[in-house]
Amino acid sequence: MDSPSAPPALLLSFRALPYGSSSRRSLCLRSKKRLQRLPSPGTGRRHVAAAAVDKLAPRPPEAGRLRWKYRLACRGSYDSGDGLPGPPPPPPSGESVDVWRPALSRWDVPWQWPTVSLTMVACALSALLAGKVEQSVLEYLGYQAGEATIDEKAGVLFLEQFSVTAVAIGVIFGITNTFRPFSDDIFRYDFKEPFKLQNGWLLWAGIGLFFALVSISLTGAVMTFLNGETTQRETDSLGLLLPLIGSSNISTACLLGITGVLAPILEETVFRGFLMVSLTMWFSTPVSVLITAVVFAFAHLTPGEFPQLFVLGVALGFSYSQTRNLLTPITIHAAWNSGVILLLTFLQLQGYDIKELLQAS
Prior knowledge:
Layout: E1 11-19, E2 22-30, E3 35-36, H1 50-54, E4 65-67, E5 73-76, H2 101-104, H3 113-140, H4 150-176, H5 201-227, H6 232-239, H7 249-279, H8 285-299, H9 306-323, H10 327-349, H11 354-360
Parallel strand pairs: 1-5
Antiparallel strand pairs: 1-2, 2-3, 4-5
Helix pairs in contact: 3-4, 3-7, 4-7, 5-9, 5-10, 7-8, 7-10, 8-9, 9-10
């Protein structure tokens, strides 16, 4: 076979184009600069436009390719009638979806352990510093806690929680943004597809909240059975909020803002969004969930509530690992905290002694 005399930059390709009810091969000459029309070898009259060539299906992997010394290539695209294997069949439509797969997979984390440790320390120090700065500012403005009303105290607590949340999250985002671009499932707050079976954030928030309620109730029953009485430390931690509960609409709104909005956003961003995700560099996702739940429970500084907080942390961690969306643990956390405040407020308005009920429960 004689070598072709065409320039080396040209590409010679055979394509199967439908004409009416039959398929004919058309010869197209492709250049680096433009596409030229050549007559169809079947009729000698019809031409193939460049736009039609671009719309053709890509060459299947079974099609042969022949290289010549002038870097010309001859490609063949064939119909099923040519006797050659066609493109692979489409995947079956009835395949089942592995719902639990996201909960077991790890995150692609770009930072290393020095960043993790320094960021956690920076968050703690910045939160303490923000609280100290706020106290200094309030004292400078003449605020006296002993002379303040209930509503004023509630407002100060809200401002303190807001400043701590803003500063701590700002520290985390300021440090981690230096590693961008990173995976889309890190620090993801996405309201789309809330009820999708595999990773719908609202659906799995409801599932996680249900299991958290059941697990915490069983844990409390077991602790009461083993100890014979409710842990006093748990009552004391709730007792700190008793003067503000049900006293006025302003104090109730401030408490809901603190416990139902600001605290869940801060804690879930720090513990689940950063710490748990970072731990998956060294541990499997289930182990990272358990470690984060331990740190989460200890961070509340209430040893008597450690079992319940640990169980809640496990539910929050697995729910987040399933959806890879921080809205899921934030919703569970917010519903849990807000539910406690609203229940205590309702009992207070009904005339019950909340402190006595907590001690007797």
